[in-house]
Design a protein that fits this description.
3 domains; Rossmann fold; alpha/beta; globular; N-(1-d-carboxylethyl)-l-norvaline Dehydrogenase, domain 2; binds 1,4-dihydronicotinamide adenine dinucleotide; 743 residues
C-alpha cells in the first residue's frame, strides 16, 4: 500500500489544516466541500494563515479543490479519504455512503470526529468496509499540534492501520497514539477533565480568573494560557458542545460528571455572544477606553464586569516544582493540590479499561495539550507515598492503591511507548545524567553528549554557556524536549545587571557567550544542534556556530535583537556576514554581504520553517529539515556517526570590509526609513551601531580583519547599546508585554 493521493472532505478548520499538512509532506490532496467556493476560500485561508499552516508558500501547489457533487470522481483514485465535515452523524453517514460507492478497495477511510464513537460512525457499513474505516483525530492547528489519535477496533485490517500510523508518523510528523473507541479517546478525556476541574475548583475556592491561570499554567508545566485563557482561545461555545457530548456518552458513575455541570453564568456569556477571542471577548478581552492603548481586561466572577487584568505574583522561581507548589500553605497551594490530585485520580481511574498504558496518557497530554508532564509523571514526581498520605480526604482508586501497597515509588518504566523511534525521551532515561548546572542538563549516551537547556523558554545565561563548554569535550547534540530550543538570551538576567549599572558583568557574560560558541565551532568534535520551536537571537547564534543543524519543520528562527535595541553579539552578526560573503554577488561587490545582512538583522527577520530559513542563510544545504520531532535525535546521531571520523573544524575566516564606504550606504537607508517614519530616533541609533559592526568599524577595504576583531566589534557595540535608556525601555516593554516597542 502507498499513500500517493488523498481526498479530504470538509474544508473547515480541521479539513483545511489536514490538507495543508499533506501539502507540506508533498502529498497531492483534493479538498472537497459542499460548494467549490467554500473550498476555494479554505485554500486562500491556508495560504494566508498566521502562524502559517504551510512550511513554504509553494506547497499550496499540492492542493486541488472542488465540490462533492461535481468532483466526487476523484475519490475513485484516492488511497486515503479523510472526512472532516460538521459533527453531525446524519451528514457523516450520507458522506460515507457516497465514499463507499466510489472508493477503490485498497483505500483507507477515516473520520476526524472528536466525539462520535467509531461504532456509531461505522454502524451502517458492511463488515468488509468496516475493515478499512477508522478515526484519525488531529488537533488544531494541525501543523503545530503533535498529537494524532487513531481509533481502531478489532474488525479493522490491522496492516492498514499500522500502515496509516507509519505514514502519519513519518510523512506528516505526528506522534500517533492508537486508542480504543472510548469517549474523548485519551487526549480530550483527560485534557477536558483537567480544564473543567481547574475551572470548577477556581470558582469553588473563589480564585480570580487571573489567579487560576497563574497557577494552572507555567508552575504546573502547562502553557500560560491556563484554563480560562485556553477556553477563550478554543471558543467557550465549542467547549459547551464538547461537554454536552461527554455527558451523553459517559456512564453516570464516571467522575467526569462531577466537573461537567452547567455553570449558569457561562451559558449566559455564550448566549450574549461572549464566546472568547472570536466573539465579543470571553474571560478576557482587549479593551480600549478613551483613545488610550489597548488594555487586557479580565472578567470578575459574579459581577460579569471587566476589570484591567491583574498580574499575579506567586513569588516562585522559574523552575517547575510541583511538590513545592502543592505543599504551599496558602490558597494557591490548596488550589494546586486540589486540581492536580483530582487529575491524577481521574487519569488513573482510566487504567486499564480506557488504556492499559498510562504512559500513553502522559504523552497525549504532552503532544495534544503541550503539557511538560502528564498526570502519571506528576504522580511519580510527587511520590506515591506523599500523594496518598498528604490528605486524609483523598479517596484513592485501585491503580494508586496497588502502587501504594507495593511501596512502588518508582513505578514509571518506559517512556514514549507509542513509537518505535529512538526518541530523546527514551534516551534520557538510559543516559548518564549530570545535573550540576542550573540552566541546562548534560546527558552522556554512547560516545556523545546531549545538552538540554531547561530555563523558562530555554533562555540563555552564563550557566547555559558553561554547560555547552563543558560538554564540548565530546561529540555533542544540543536538543530540547520543551517547547522552545531557545527564545534567546535571558533578558531578565541582563536587565538585572543593567539596573545595577554593572556593565562589566554584562560584558563578561557576552564575552563568555562568544568564547563558548567559538569553542563549539572550533573544537575537534562534531556539534549538532537539533532545534524545534523558537531558535531566536542567542538561540540562533548557537545554531549558526554548530557544525550541523537538524531542524524540525516547525522552527521559528532568526536574529531579533534589534527589536529590543541590541545587536547580535554572540557571533551572530559575524557569522551571518561570513555566510553572505561566500556568495557570487559578494565576490563581485564587497559591499553586497554587509548590506544584505544589515537588512536581515536590521528588520529582525525570522523564518517559520527550515525551508523559509534557507534564502536568509539562517540554514545551509548541509543542514536537515525533519517533519517528525521524535526523529531529531536519531538523525543527529547518524550525522555524528557519518562525520566524526576524520572530522576537521572549519578554518578561521578573515574579513575585508569597506568601513565608512558601505556604512554611508547603510546610513542613507536609515535616513530614508526615518523620513518615512518607519523607524524613530532609537531605531536610527541601533541601525547605525549595527552598520558600524557590519562595515568592519574603522577599517578600509585592503585591511584584513580577523574573526576575533569582528567579535570585539560586536561586543563593544552591545555594551554601548545596553547602557542606553531607550534600549532598556525596549527590553522592559518586551519583557512585560511580549511585544516590541518602537521608540
Ligand atoms: P467546521 O465547521 O470548521 O468545518 C466543517 C466543514 O464541513 C464546513 O466547511 C462545511 O461546509 C463542510 N460540510 C458540511 N457538510 C458537508 C458535506 N455534506 N459535504 C462536504 N462538506 C460539508 O468544522 P471543524 O471544526 O473543521 O470540524 C470538522 C470535524 O473535525 C468535526 O467532526 C469535529 O468534531 C472534528 N474536530 C474538530 C476540532 C476543532 O478544533 N475544530 C478538533 C478535532 C476534531
Amino acid at each position: 500500500m502507498k499513500i500517493k493521493n488523498v481526498v479530504v472532505i470538509g474544508s473547515g478548520t480541521m479539513g483545511s489544516g489536514i490538507a495543508a499538512q499533506l501539502c507540506n509532506a508533498n502529498i497531492p490532496v483534493t479538498l472537497l466541500d459542499l460548494k467549490t467556493e467554500i473550498s476555494e476560500k479554505a485554500k486562500k485561508r491556508i495560504f494566508e494563515s498566521k502562524p502559517p499552516l504551510l512550511i513554504d508558500k509553494s506547497k499550496i501547489n499540492n492542493i486541488r479543490i472542488g465540490n462533492i457533487d461535481e468532483n466526487f470522481e476523484i475519490v475513485k483514485k484516492a488511497d486515503w479519504i479523510v472526512e472532516a465535515v460538521v459533527e453531525r452523524i446524519d451528514v457523516k453517514h450520507k458522506i460515507y455512503e457516497k465514499i463507499l460507492k466510489n472508493r477503490k478497495k485498497e483505500s483507507i477511510i477515516s473520520s476526524n470526529t472528536s466525539t462520535i464513537p467509531l461504532k456509531v460512525l461505522s454502524s451502517k457499513m458492511s463488515m468488509q468496509d468496516k475493515k478499512d474505516f477508522c478515526i484519525t483525530h488531529f488537533f488544531n492547528p494541525v501543523r503545530y499540534m503533535g498529537l494524532l489519535e487513531i481509533v481502531s477496533e478489532t474488525n479493522n485490517d490491522i496492516n492498514k492501520i499500522n500502515f496509516l500510523k507509519d505514514f502519519c508518523e513519518n510523512s506528516l510528523g505526528k506522534g500517533v497514539i492508537i486508542c480504543k473507541d472510548t469517549p474523548g479517546f485519551l487526549g480530550n478525556r483527560v485534557g477536558v477533565y483537567a480544564l473543567q476541574v481547574a475551572m470548577t475548583e477556581a470558582i469553588k475556592m473563589k480564585l480570580s480568573i487571573e489567579e487560576a491561570d497563574a497557577i494552572f499554567g507555567r508552575p504546573m508545566g502547562i502553557p500560560k494560557t491556563g484554563v480560562f485563557g485556553l477556553y477563550d482561545l478554543i471558543g467557550i461555545d465549542l467547549m459547551l458542545d464538547v461537554l454536552k457530548s461527554f455527558k451523553k456518552e459517559l456512564p453516570k458513575s464516571d467522575s467526569f460528571h462531577l466537573v461537567a455541570q452547567e455553570i449558569p453564568f457561562i451559558k449566559e456569556m455564550v448566549n450574549r455572544g461572549f464566546t472568547g477571542r472570536k466573539g465579543k471577548g470571553g474571560f478576557y478581552r482587549m479593551n480600549r477606553t478613551g483613545g488610550g492603548p489597548k488594555v487586557l481586561e479580565a472578567l470578575s466572577y459574579n459581577l460579569t464586569k471587566y476589570f484591567p487584568a491583574e498580574k499575579i505574583d506567586l513569588s516562585i522561581d522559574d523552575k517547575i516544582d510541583i511538590k513545592k507548589l502543592v505543599s504551599r500553605n496558602d490558597k494557591y497551594g490548596k488550589y494546586a493540590w486540589s486540581v492536580i490530585s483530582k487529575i491524577i485520580l481521574y487519569a488513573s481511574s482510566l487504567i486499564p479499561n480506557v488504556t492499559k498504558d498510562y504512559n500513553n496518557i502522559d504523552e497525549a497530554m504532552r503532544l495534544g495539550f503541550n503539557w511538560t508532564k502528564g498526570p502519571f509523571e506528576m504522580l511519580e514526581e510527587l511520590g506515591v507515598k506523599f500523594f496518598v498520605e498528604k490528605d486524609n480526604q483523598l479517596k484513592t482508586n485501585e491503580f494508586i492503591k496497588k502502587l501504594y501497597d507495593k511501596k512502588n515509588n518508582n513505578f514509571y518504566g518506559k517512556r514514549q511507548i507509542y513509537t518505535n523511534l529512538e526518541t530523546l525521551g527514551k534516551v534520557k532515561q538510559l543516559a548518564k545524567i549530570n545535573k550540576d548546572n542550573k540552566s541546562a542538563i548534560i546527558y552522556e549516551h554512547k560516545d556523545y553528549k546531549i545538552v538540554e537547556f531547561n530555563t523558562k523558554a530555554n533562555t540563555l545565561d552564563y550557566d547555559s554557556m558553561d554547560a555547552l563548554k563543558k560538554a564540548s569535550d565530546k561529540n555533542m547534540i544540543i536538543i530540547n524536549e520543551g517547547m522552545q530550543f531557545s527564545a534567546g538570551v535571558n533578558l531578565n538576567y541582563v536587565m538585572d545587571f543593567a539596573k545595577e549599572k554593572n556593565w562589566k558583568a554584562i560584558e563578561k557574560f557576552i564575552h563568555h557567550f562568544q568564547m563558548t560558541c567559538k569553542q563549539l565551532k572550533y573544537s575537534n568534535n562534531v556539534v549538532v544542534s537539533a532545534p524545534s520551536g523558537l531558535a531566536l537571537g542567542g538561540g540562533f547564534e548557537v545554531l549558526v556556530q554548530s557544525d550541523y543543524v537538524v531542524a524540525h519543520a516547525n522552527i521559528v528562527t532568526g536574529l531579533v535583537e534589534t527589536l529590543v535595541g541590541l545587536i547580535p553579539a554572540g557571533g551572530g552578526t559575524t557569522n551571518m556576514l561570513w555566510r553572505w560573503m561566500q556568495t557570487q554577488e559578494a565576490k563581485k561587490d564587497p559591499d553586497f554581504a554587509p548590506q544584505k545582512v544589515f537588512d536581515i538583522i536590521g528588520y529582525g527577520k525570522t523564518a517559520n520553517s527550515p525551508i523559509e530559513a534557507m534564502p536568509f542563510k539562517f540554514l545551509l544545504e548541509k543542514d536537515k529539515n525533519i517533519m517528525n520531532r521524535n526523529k531529531l535525535l536519531s538523525v543527529s546521531q547518524d550525522l555524528i556517526n557519518e562525520k566524526k571520523d576524520g572530522y576537521k573544524p572549519p578554518k578561521k575566516p578573515t574579513f575585508k570590509l569597506s568601513g565608512s564606504q558601505v556604512r554611508g550606504k547603510m546610513f542613507q537607508t536609515l535616513e530614508k526609513l526615518f523620513k518615512e517614519k518607519k523607524i524613530l530616533e532609537h531605531g536610527m541609533e541601533v541601525g547605525k551601531k549595527l552598520a558600524f559592526v557590519l562595515s568592519g568599524g574603522n577599517t578600509t577595504i585592503n585591511k584584513e580583519l580577523s574573526e576575533d576583531d569582528m567579535y570585539a566589534l560586536e561586543l563593544e557595540v552591545f555594551v554601548q547599546l545596553i547602557q542606553m535608556e531607550k534600549t532598556q525601555a525596549r527590553i522592559k516593554h518586551t519583557l512585560s508585554t511580549g511585544k516590541p516597542l518602537v521608540n
